[in-house]
Design a protein that fits this description.
The chain has 172 residues and is an alpha+beta fold. It has one domain: Electron Transport, Fmn-binding Protein, Chain A (Pnp Oxidase, Chain A, Roll). Helix content is 26%, strand content 27%. The protein has 4 helices and 6 strands. It has helices at 14-30, 88-95, 117-130, 134-138, and strands at 46-53, 60-70, 73-78, 98-103, 106-114, 146-152. Strands 1-2-3-6-5-4 form a 6-stranded antiparallel β-barrel.
Length: 172
């Protein structure tokens, strides 16, 4: 498997990771979406905002994630800060895969799915190019880390929605 242990990766304490996530979402909200996202470039992953529907609450939930682009698709990992357990956003996406993502260049309507087989291996290798410690971080988890593919929705032109105003109050 491509997630073999290559040494124990050091991570900050969990409280620090959660505080950083909270502050990142706060920065996004108070800037009206002008700060907190960045485009993926060669050799560097980007940051996007994913909006899902809560599987139990039915309310909109948002999270900021790292990503890279693979043709028209946007790729991320369901890794929960490298802790065990699936992140809540991934459980929400599995329940309702039609979601929206906000990138630095606009909003897209997409449909999510997990990569598997050769496609997963290829995308894992792409992540490894962006993060040399990927295998060591993944080894901290007891299970396989899902690679999530966001494909343009067929019902929206090129998967892009009009980039109207940012919903600053939805990040919860």
């Amino acid at each position: 498997m491509s997630e073999k242990q290559t040494g124990r990766a050091r991570l900050p304490p969990r409280w620090f990771i959660r505080t950083f996530w909270t502050m990142h979402r706060y920065l996004y909200r108070v800037s009206g979406g002008r700060a907190g996202l960045r485009r993926a470039k060669n050799g560097r992953w980007g940051m996007m905002r994913l909006s899902t529907t809560g599987r139990r609450s039915g309310q909109e939930r948002s999270v900021i994630l790292g990503y890279f682009e693979d043709g028209p698709n946007v790729i991320t990992m369901a890794m929960n800060g490298w802790g065990d357990g699936e992140p809540a956003w991934w459980l929400n996406v599995q329940a309702c895969p039609d979601v929206t993502i906000d990138l630095a260049d606009g909003r897209r309507s997409v449909k999510a799915r997990a990569a598997d087989g050769d496609e997963r291996e290829r995308l894992w290798d792409r992540w490894r190019e962006l993060d040399k410690n990927l295998d060591a971080y993944a080894a901290r988890r007891s299970g396989e880390t899902a690679i999530v593919i966001f494909e343009p929705s067929p019902d929206s032109a090129l998967g892009n929605l009009a980039d109207d105003s940012t919903d600053a109050g939805a990040d919860q």
